[in-house]
Amino acid sequence: MTAGDSPTIDILALGEALVDLISLERGASLDDVDSFKRYLGGAPINVAATAARLGRSSAVIARVGHDAFGRFIRSEVRRLQVEDTYLQVDAQRPTTLTFVASTIGTPDFLMVRGADAYLQATPEPNGIHATASLAQALARAKALHVSMNALSLEPSRSTAINAIKQAHAAGLVVSLDPNYRSRIGPDEATLHHLLRELCPLTTLVKPSLDDAIAIFGPGYSKTEYIKRFQEYGARRVLLTLGKDGVLVADGETHTALLAEQIEVADATGAGDAFTAGVLLALIEGLDLATAARLGQRVSAAKLRAVGHSALLPSWTMIRDGV
Questions:
Q1: Of 32, 80, 209, 220, whose CB is crowded by the most CB atoms within 10 A?
Q2: What's the whole-model pTM score?
């Protein structure tokens, strides 16, 4: 079957597919906890899973190990009805794991890197599972979403850069999540070089306030953080502020959107749910402020639902305000 014969993909998410090992006990740091439970993890996976739960099509380009954790990821991705055609399985390297201390604040974590950093544009001829290339995936996609983790190490970095360049040239909606943390990388000089190179190729850059502080340092106002991304060439920026909402910068105006005040059942992946809603709106041609409002509706629905399995409203219900 050729790319032209295949159904389109609303959101193609590229980056880390990993297992989050989240502590059963509450603790300010990993020093304070002993027991963990495994969960499907990775920001791109969360975006793709949200789109699928809204009844839209999504696929992931990622790399896992040929091990029990990799099999767990593949099983969960399929269960969530996210297409795994482009999910590569590495025969030599283990699946990437992240140990996370459960806390109501910013969690302490330790990422043990493995297969995710070795994502290839073209799977090995004798590789396990994935046989289709990045170019074939992009030919079917309406939007490409890339995480900063994918840009932290080679060869995944070159794969992600090429994906963004190809998607931009093809006129896709291109989204970059600059979820940078120094302990993951890249180094500071490489980070800023990458942002200068890639921001002009994006449709949307969506940092959280924590991301912006990690990249540019503390002490700036929210609008100054947005300006820094714009100076790097980002045309449209959504700065998410958690319970305080989101700042929308479309290149001409800044608009503050307050968050809906709700009772939170599960905050995990709420920012990625927001991104999924924004991207689904943008591929329909809606303006950035409207897209951000719809993203907030999706995020609110996710905050009310526990885990990846709980039902979400359909995208049509979200878009039409039902």
A1: 80
A2: 0.92
